[in-house]
Design goal:
- Among the domains are: 1-201, Sandwich (Immunoglobulin-like), CATH 2.60.40.1730; 207-310, Zincin-like, CATH 3.30.2010; 330-449, Neutral Protease Domain 2 (Neutral Protease, domain 2).
- By secondary structure, the protein is an alpha+beta fold.
- It starts with 8 loop residues before the first strand and ends with a helix.
- The strands form 8 sheets. It has an 8-stranded mixed sheet, with no helix packed on it.
- The mean pLDDT is 97.
- The chain is globular, with a radius of gyration of 28 Å.
- It is built from 27 helices and 31 strands.
- It is 40% helix and 20% strand.
- A hairpin with a 5-residue loop joins β17 and β18.
- It binds (3S)-3,7-diaminoheptanoic acid and zinc ion (ZN).
- The site of (3S)-3,7-diaminoheptanoic acid (B3K) has 12 residues, from β20 and α2.
- Belongs to the peptidase M1 family.
């Protein structure tokens, strides 16, 4: 492993830029192998750092993988001694505080497999510049605190009729040699990471939106011709987002046009480039026949997320990349609230909390653990993490809980007003929240700087004579790499109390409300409720009011009681989760001590009651009936014993399936829909419960159940039902049957990229069918493309991250396979390689044998040769725990 890559950048070393760029004039002559990029920059000394009578410092321009053709200042070619090309950029000496710099470079989009900078996807030119991709396009001060007004001219052959960039189209024509030429002007100053360019033979759908002040905005969604029928849902989602941001945050769109482009080759979900969002096709294209309900909902939330960035990210941006959560945490919070308003609030919250508990908590306890605002990084691409995004959103949510909705809105209004057009910090966000409300968030700020998931231990006492009920809550945050001696955090804990008959108690101390937010600020604190006539049952951390692990010794009977009576739907689900986890832990102990596994009676009873409760939202029922994933069970603490987890979970699933088979069948038939597909919350809820029932019915193994699944598969009414039936058939049918259904599905859908991705994922993630041998075959399949991150995610990540059973096969072959894939991918796409290695980073948590095997796989990567900076950072930090 090469360690010259180990350049660490620290937040404490931040310095304001020496020079500003007032105007950026770019021109592109597109060619797959030799694109000519000319940039003209109006540069001036940054007055904020200039000293009187100073010697001007050199100008630094970042650049990577560029062929430098020429450098001119004020129209004169610069002699070679005035500039130096170094690793990572260009340094120029200047003799005036203000000048025009012109740089010509050549780049090869065709050869760019990192999908950062300018590259080709199915013959279409597109860009991805966040965080540091612009430096692969031209030499530039590629940092978010340099904000410039951009003009972009694109020249391309006539076979690329659509030429797009940020802002408004101001000119177009044809060059003397017959090429097309278009010029775009973006009036809003922006950092280089928000620059975008697209060129291709694209179709589009068009709509319009009238803003709250009456301006008409043109909305366009561009795709390759074959996908033009899949744009409607994204367009509707965009219009809903635009309206919601006006109504909830008072934010109006600012340009006359808003464009979205779908591309097949993309490292993540989407990108919020000013006025020209670029999306991974999988996160924008949908039709009922080809996309599942989950895809419809994902599209709605990502379209909203990118749109919301126009204010939280673009108009107000980050000073430096340590502040990434300023835009990402806030925007995730905004999109989560939007989705909650559009769909079922409880279900959205459950999904977000499941992600946190399964993956963010693991990240926070692993070798890459970092605070929401990291202190250092080697490669910023590695810090687009669940901690920065999801925990960051939880931090914003806690501010919302502490201040209340009206005060939060006053804070966000002040934040946008104060910092419009500026590049600012997380501190500026918190300060605006305080200043708008005279609030004190001094201790709360520790959430931004302290890593690790806090653990809360709760005990209670009841004094019958005084009618007082007390909660004692202790907090403790575990040590994380490089951070010892954690301080107490300000943690808002929403609590309700249930009386013996299940009714909610009015809390005298909370002005007769049914619930109260307790502010835990000390290491240990006591909270007393007066006027309580008999011992209550506490409903703690309602709505998951803080991203913590909460321990309270509930009995199974108490959890079943909460499942039925809690007025907080999230906590009803959470009680069910706790009951499942307790049952699964007992089963794991039985497995480890070689005993016969016992029926999880309390869990079956609890599930039966949930299924019998006709008043419960079917979506919530489906969530309650889903056993925690193996990965989530693994995160419960202690040494991970993969075999015990798999045995316990499979046993519990089959026991539930057998015991409740009749109920599942009745509910399945009652939920069959005889109406056209619609992605409404109600219909999605019904389908999710129906398909949960189908899965359990097939798990119980009767031929009738498989026939039911076969019928649903063959009717093919919508992709949600078809894919759910296929998943059940693959998991519980014979191998020959599974093979047959998968073949039939592929035959029908092989022309559709998104469905083929679903098809790959169904196989690689199957506990029974997704063996290593099968995954190796999928990699050799003609539809697999190693240069397409969606395919890599569907097959390789599907196996390594969503197929606990096969990935952790006892011979360790899954680990070696992943190591080999990561080594190969690193040469093509470092960002994807560094993401894919995640399952190997937690080697320390496993039992001795697996731990040694995973460690060996990491070592294999580490000695495989020169690694990218991305992969080097993750692998070296993971091995440092030795
Ligand atoms: N801001 C982009 C993420 C860019 C990731 C760069 N490696 C998408 C988003 O969060 O909206
Ligand atoms: Zn974002």
């Amino acid at each position: 492993m090469k360690d010259s890559q180990a350049r660490t950048i620290y937040l404490k070393d931040y310095q304001a830029p020496d020079y500003l760029v007032d105007h950026t004039d770019l021109s592109f002559e597109l060619d797959p192998h030799a694109t000519l990029v000319k940039s003209k920059l109006k540069i001036r000394r940054n007055p904020a750092v200039a000293q009187a009578n100073e010697t001007l410092p050199p100008l630094w321009l970042d650049g990577a993988d560029l062929e430098l053709l020429s450098v001119s200042i004020n129209g004169e070619l610069l002699p070679a001694h005035r500039y130096q090309q170094r690793a990572g950029g260009l340094s120029l000496s200047t003799d005036a505080p203000e000048f025009e710099l012109e740089v010509h470079t050549r780049i090869a989009p065709e050869a760019n497999t990192s999908l950062e900078g300018l590259y080709l996807s199915n013959g279409m030119y597109c860009t991805q510049c966040e965080a540091e991709g612009f430096r692969k396009i031209t030499f530039y001060p590629d940092r978010p605190d340099v904000m410039s007004v951009f003009t972009t001219t694109i020249v391309a052959p006539a076979s690329y009729p659509v030429l797009l960039s940020n802002g408004n189209k101001v000119d177009s024509g044809t060059t003397e040699d017959g090429r097309l030429r278009v010029t775009w002007e973006d009036p809003f100053a922006k950092p280089s990471y928000l620059f975008a360019l697209v060129a291709g033979d694209l179709q589009h759908v068009e709509d319009s939106f009238t803003t709250c002040s009456g301006r008409e905005v043109k909305l366009q969604l561009f795709t390759e011709a074959r996908n033009i029928g899949k744009c409607a849902h994204a367009m509707t989602s965009l219009k809903h987002s635009m309206r919601w941001d006006e109504e909830v945050y008072g934010r109006e769109y600012d340009l006359d046009i808003f464009m979205i482009v779908a591309v097949d080759h993309f490292n993540m979900g989407a990108m919020e480039n000013k006025g020209l969002n670029i999306f991974n096709s999988a996160c924008v294209l949908a039709s009922p026949e080809t996309a599942t309900d989950a895809a419809f909902q994902r599209i709605e939330s990502i379209v909203a997320h990118e749109y919301f960035h126009n204010w939280s990210g673009n108009r107000v941006t980050c000073r430096d990349w340590f502040q990434l959560s300023l835009k990402e945490g806030f925007t995730v919070f905004r999109d989560a609230e939007f989705s909650a308003d559009m769909n079922s609030r409880a279900v959205k919250r459950i999904e977000d909390v499941t992600l946190l508990r399964t993956s963010q908590f693991a990240e926070d306890a692993g070798p890459m653990s970092h605070p929401v605002r990291p202190d250092s990084y080697m490669e910023i691409s590695n810090f687009y993490t669940l901690t920065v995004y999801e925990k960051g959103a939880e931090v914003v949510r806690m501010i919302h809980t502490i201040l209340g909705p009206e005060a939060f809105r006053r804070g966000s209004d002040l934040y946008f007003e104060r910092h419009d057009g500026c590049a600012v910090t997380c501190e500026d966000f918190v300060a605006a929240m305080e200043d708008a409300n005279g609030a004190d968030l001094k201790q709360f700020r520790r959430w931004y700087s302290q890593a690790g998931t806090p653990v809360l231990d709760v005990e209670d006492t009841y004094n019958e004579a005084l009618g007082e009920y007390s909660l004692t809550i202790r907090q403790q945050t575990p040590e994380t790499p490089g951070q010892k001696g954690k301080l107490p955090l300000h943690i808002p804990i929403t609590v309700g109390l249930l009386a013996e008959d299940g009714s909610p108690l009015r809390l005298d101390d909370a002005a007769g409300q049914m619930e109260v937010v307790l502010h835990l600020t000390e290491a240990s604190q006591n909270f007393t409720f007066a006027g309580i006539a008999s011992r209550p049952l506490p409903s703690l951390l309602r709505g998951f009011s803080a991203p913590v692990k909460l321990r309270y010794d509930y009995s199974s009977a108490q959890l079943q009681f909460l499942m039925q009576h809690d007025t907080d739907p999230f906590n009803r689900w959470d009680a069910c989760q706790r009951l499942s986890i307790n049952s699964l832990q007992t089963l794991q102990q039985q497995y480890r001590s070689g005993e016969a596994l016992q029926q999880p009676a309390a869990l079956i009873e609890g599930y039966a009651a949930v299924l019998d409760d006709a008043a419960l939202d079917p979506a919530l029922v489906a969530k309650m009936l889903a056993l925690p994933s193996a990965q989530e069970i693994a995160e419960q603490g202690g040494e991970i014993d993969a075999a015990a987890i798999i045995a316990a979970r499979t046993f519990a699933r089959d026991a539930i399936a057998t015991a409740l088979a009749e109920r599942f069948l009745t509910r399945y038939h009652a939920l069959e829909q005889h109406k056209p597909y619609s992605p409404t919350a109600e219909d999605i809820a019904e389908r999710s419960l129906k398909n949960t029932c189908l899965f359990y019915l097939c798990a119980a193994g009767s031929a009738d159940a498989l026939a039911l699944a076969k019928g649903q598969f063959e009717r093919g009414e919508n992709m949600t039902d078809t894919a759910a039936a296929l998943a059940a058939l693959v998991e519980f049918g014979t191998e020959t049957q599974a093979e047959g259904f998968l073949q039939a599905f592929y035959q029908q859908w092989q022309q559709d990229t998104q469905v083929v991705e679903t098809w790959f994922g169904l196989q690689s993630g199957s506990a029974k069918f997704g063996t290593l041998e099968r995954v190796q075959k999928l990699i050799a399949h003609p539809a697999f493309e190693v240069k397409n991150p969606n395919k890599v995610r569907a097959v390789i990540a599907g196996f390594a991250m969503r197929n606990f059973t096969q990935f952790h096969r006892a011979d360790g072959s899954g680990y070696t396979f992943l190591a080999d894939q990561v080594i190969a991918l690193d040469k093509l796409n470092p960002q994807i390689a560094a993401r894919l290695v995640t399952p190997l980073t937690r080697w320390k948590k496993y039992r001795a044998q697996e731990s040694a095997q995973i460690h060996a796989a990491l070592q294999k990567i580490s000695v495989s040769g020169e690694l990218s900076r991305d992969l080097y950072e993750v692998v070296s930090k993971s091995l440092e725990q030795d």
